[in-house]
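Expect sequence, tokenised fold; for instance:
***
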Amino acid sequence: MQRIGIIGAGDFGIQHARALQQVAGAELVAASRTNETALADFVAEFGGRGYVDYRDLLTDPRVDAVMIATPHHHHTEIALAAARAGKHILLEKPMAPTLAECDAIIDAAAQARVKLMLGHVNRFTHPYRIAQALIASGEVGDVIHGLATMQKFWFEPNRRDWHLDRARGGGVWLTVGIHPLDRLTWLIDSPISAVSARFGTHYHADMAADDTGMVFVRYANGAAGTIVSTGYSVGAPKHSTELTCTKGMLNIDYATGVQIGREDRWQLVPDSVPTGSWMVEGIANEWRDFLHAIATDTEPSVSGTVARAIMQAVFAAEASSAAGREIQISEFTG
């Protein structure tokens, strides 16, 4: 049994707490949040001991592993402290606001000999697992190119000031655009070799971060992809991935499942539609992967090294937009 502490018991911390209720071998024993009233509500609903200061949670001997779901610019200090305290770490994406900080987190976990996993939840959702299995089996052949989108209303009720400031790890690209980049890269299963991007702030003029972006990605195996990242004020949501493969096409959606395109028609892949909340289901699968890595002393599927490669591409895309040219990943060091 792994005893879990959630650091950052806010909106996404609540999603993790709900998912943990479905996971055998894990027990939520502690949570931290600076808002005392909200923390009390969280503990009343999910149990465990509440801490206003995460440092006190890290000294709790009952806690074996932590989930860090705080604002992005706090990830590094908390992850480093968790490693020093000997706690296994499930860290929400993005890993950190700079590549140097990502490297510091990876090094700290390695030195402390604790497991480090990043919360790239799209990989663990039911439709994306079905799609990945189809690709891995050879059923649809090789992926030639893909289009992955994350377009959503930006000013949701949980939006905070730090989300609007790139200096604190905010912006649509870092907050949600990383999802389509990660899931497309996982499905293509090849290192990213180059990126070309254009980011802008077109919906929220007073925001010190991007709210729109388009990124062209070249992969080492010859495949290519386009990422659309949008946080609109006026629009409609679209969260999907479209793949062109040598033996067919795939359309993948969190809620509506997987469709395969052949012989001029689309067909729903049987049993590819989630039966419950795709988000909670995905997070629960994520926890099972993390717990398995701890139990077997193996690397989790989204290790620090895997996540670092995604972050390197994230930052290289920002550099590409600023420079107005394609950036080779090999030339980008942070």
Summary: The longest helix spans residues 304-323.
